[in-house]
Amino acid sequence: MTQLAEAGFDELRTALTGTVLGPGEDGYDDARRLWNAQHDRRPAVIAQVRTAEDVSAAVRFGVAHGLEIAVRGGSHSMSGASSVDDGLMIDLSLMNQVTVDPEARRARVGGGALLGDVDAATQPYGLAVPAGMISHTGVGGLTLGGGMGWLTRKHGLSIDNVESVQIVTADGSILRAAEDENADLFWAVRGGGGNFGVVTEFEFRLHEAGPLVQYAMLFWGLDQGAEMLRMARELIPSMPRDINIVTACLNAPPAPFVPEEHHFKPGYALVIVGFGSPEQHAEALDKIRRLLPPLVEFATPMPYVAVQQLLDEANAWGRHNYDKGCYLEDLSDGAIEVITEYLPRKTSPLSVVLLYHLDGAYLEVDDDATAFSGGRTERYMVFPIAVCPAPEMLEAERAWVRSFWDALQPHALGRGAYVNGLADVDEDRLRASYGDKYDRLVELKRKYDPDNVFHRNQNIKP
Ligand code: FAD
Predict the structure, then answer these.
(1) pLDDT in tens, 142-173
(2) What is the C-alpha separation between 424 and 321, in angstroms, rounded?
(3) What's the whole-model pTM score?
(4) What is the DSSP code (8-state) at residue 151?
(5) pLDDT tops 70 at residue 454
(6) Ligand 1 atom nearest to CA at 36
(7) What pLDDT does residue 4 have?
(8) In the chain, where does the domain assigned CATH 3.40.462.20 lie?
(9) Do 279 and 245 touch, CB atoms closer than 8 A?
């Protein structure tokens, strides 16, 4: 490695407009840090790229020197895929620029931007990219896997709103992929993850959202779980598309609106975001109160950017995390029984179970139109997520996630999952997740990355 450091890093430094960091240099430890503190990896070299040409030079350098390559977007992959021991980390975090054309309703977003960068640039025009719910997540990994958030019900997944990408492939070529150019590659990057190259820019279609939206969180106790989930099962699909509801099984926060006797107590919440009128939102809340009065509630209009940041702290950097998701066709009585049996068994107060309902605009995109790892039929995406403030807590909590997942399997929609919600991946699981699309993805992997240069991801082997 010393030899490489002496011979190679200068070559890389000369080739890049960005920064090259080796072990021991200022900034190296910050740059190698990942969101999931469970992964502590030490790359031989970090290339903090600024342009597509930098990315191309870094990829060529890594391949020429036989270095394993990791691509870092927002660094939120559960598995720590975006770093690598003794290899080359291509760090996209400086490529976070966002330019907005409000007339054409388009945004060009750097491959290393965070969701917060996009919201900050688009919201002054009252526009938004449908993306995820935590502002420090990377646009790159989130979009390449699919991207679901508050606007999915109204406007589809993030990939359903990508117009084109600029991408650096394994041989260092800089390509544009869109419906009218490299259409096969364009299909593959919309759901196929980072397998096909490094996306240096996404072009997104924008939609009106905010600046003010309606927010509410309603909370029920542990003993009301089954009743609440049965109520949610009827309620959620009946809501207008302007209203998106996520079911969260979690401990009540010690927030001012939560009476002290409920602080930190586990239970069941509906988090509700309304993009329509305040009256429509109030009507939805009234309906819920009539169906099953909550123990605690908090409702207020809020800027869209604030909603996007509201859960940032609950999902902060530096914790030890693990997840394993699956799809459910519905919240069947059997699935509800499993959820209510397993929730009280979690050992970390920060761990959560999220139930994300996919319908509305999600269903209007043809299943074959993208490589997304999930059929376009109505379904719930379920994520039991272990979140531990201390590393020694993770073993028990990981076992909890796995046993929870095992117990859900008889009620699951196949063995597949949303690939962005899997900490461990094996080929069988990926095959099950992509279904009929898997063979086509393998074929395209052979075409664009035959040597599997980009394998630190939900890897499709060529
Ligand atoms: P990284 O770890 O940097 O990247 C993830 C993978 O994508 C790696 O394999 C990396 O190499 C690759 N990659 C990243 N950028 C690029 C690029 N530009 N070109 C090529 N490859 C790239 N998902 C949702 O759909 N909705 C949510 O609301 C949501 N919320 C989340 C909240 C938290 C706190 C976390 C941890 C995850 C969340 N996710 C959500 C899942 C998220 O989509 C995935 O973890 C995703 O991989 C994160 O992307 P990233 O760029 O931050 O991560």
Answers:
(1) 999 999 999 999 999 999 999 999 999 999 99
(2) 12
(3) 0.97
(4) T
(5) yes
(6) 36
(7) 57
(8) 212-421
(9) no
